[in-house]
Amino acid sequence: MRNTQTWQEALVVATRDLTPTVREFDIRPAEGTPAPWDAGAHMQVQLLVNSQVQTRCYSLVGLPDGVSYRIAVKRMDDGRGGSRAMWQLAVGDRLQVSEPQNHFQLDLSAPHYLLVAGGIGITPLVMMAQQLRAHALKTGATLRMLYGVRTQEELAFLPLLREALGDALQTFVSERGEVMDLAGEIAALPAGAQLYTCGPVAMLEALRKAWAQAGRPAANLRFETFGSSGRFAAQAFRVLVPRQHIDIMVPAGSTLLDALESAGVETLSDCRRGECGLCAMDVLALEGEADHRDVFLSEHEKQQCSRICACVSRVVGSVTLDSAYRAD
Questions:
Q1: Residue 198 lies in a domain
Q2: Which of 54, 73, 75, 266 stands 20 to 30 A from 157 (CA)?
Q3: Of 167, 202, 225, which marks where a domain is finished?
């Protein structure tokens, strides 16, 4: 079944356009004050997308102020509709939100930290940069951040990051031909260093590969993803669940997980970002090709295609899945 969640009503109290495609929202609980959060935390938001209530996760940005939650949303015109729904919100609008959750917690025991952000992946790393800067001043730990975007105008939170990090922040703008040397950066890290990263799946996969090739402990590479555009453009596909006699089409604008839940298939889920693997389902048959968009399954598992993460991954063609349902 779906992961149990407690919801509370909240109000949009302010919005700010940080870049042409990134908008920041201040969201205040209708009653009481916001719960505190730690670096790396996120909150879930319920939105009306394609006439259906759907859930989206957004990282909480910056240090808590005890007044409101802050999130930043990149408008994705070719996405599944969540960002467009967020951008349609105005000051005074009401919505349902969860309390903060954290699957990307910061460990303050390392001697050195490297933060690597790609695009809107900067959002969970803002508070990490602020907290680690203060931590470094107290303990002598060292810290650097690499922040890559496509265009100069997409560098969200740049003044705040410059204030927090100074010369420890290095930006990369791809339209100027600037490219991160991930292997070189990892090779230069002292022993025991930790790397925290968030961004496109392609960047995360490159970091995971370079980290492994450098012989670094897997536990010291920590990441969060906001999802992947995949290898194929999103399109409708067929899903069969023989155990429950279900045969449905997943629309291009819906996730496999949402479509299954709408059809009455009880599914386990948590992160809804392709990270935790809780929603992974057994693939019984595949006609076509799977478009794995998660960072949970290994490359070997993706090639075998015996499982698929329903929250983010898709199929070109049709797929037959097993479910956890068992008749009494």
A1: yes
A2: 54
A3: 225
Hey, which of 51-60, 167-176, 221-230, 231-240 has the most confident mean pLDDT?
Answer: 167-176
**Could you tell me if 266 and 244 are in contact, meaning their C-beta atoms sit under 8 angstroms apart?**
no
- With a CB cutoff of 8 Å and minimum separation 6, the contacts of 274 are 201, 225, 227, 228, 293, 294, 295, 296, 309, 311, 312, 313
Clarify whether residues 208 and 120 are in a common domain.
Answer: yes
pLDDT, tens digit, for every residue of 259-269?
A: 998 898 888 88
pLDDT of amino acid 275: 80
Asked whether residue 274 falls in the same domain as residue 251, the answer is yes
Where is pLDDT greater, at 298 or 167? 167
Q: Is 92 left (phi over 0), alpha (psi -120 to 50) or beta?
A: left
Which CATH number fits the domain that encloses residue 140? 3.40.50.80
Residue with tokens 């919100």: 89
Please indicate, yes or no, if residue 200 is contained in any of the structural domains: yes
User: Any residues with CB less than 8 A from the CB of 121 and at least 6 apart, and which?
Assistant: 197, 198, 199, 200, 203, 224, 225, 226
List, as one string, the DSSP characters of 111-139.
SEEEEEEEGGGGHHHHHHHHHHHHHHHHH
Claim to verify: residue 152 and residue 48 sit in the same structural domain: no
Q: How many domains does the chain have?
A: 3
HSE (CB half, 13 Å, CA atoms) of 1?
2
β-strand pairing of 280-291 with 307-309: antiparallel
Q: Tell me the C-alpha distance between 47 and 44, whole Å.
A: 10
Distance (Å) of CA 31 to CA 8, 65, 242, 275: 9, 16, 46, 32
Domain boundary among 225, 260, 283: 225
Instruction: Check if the beta carbon of residue 276 is closer than 8 Å to that of residue 311.
Output: no
Query: Alpha-carbon distance 161 to 169, whole Å?
Result: 7
54: region left, alpha or beta (phi > 0 left; psi from -120 to 50 alpha): beta
When pLDDT is cut at 50, 70 and 90, the band that residue 325 belongs to is low
Q: Which residues form the domain of 311?
A: 237-321
The CATH number covering residue 283 comes to 3.10.20.30
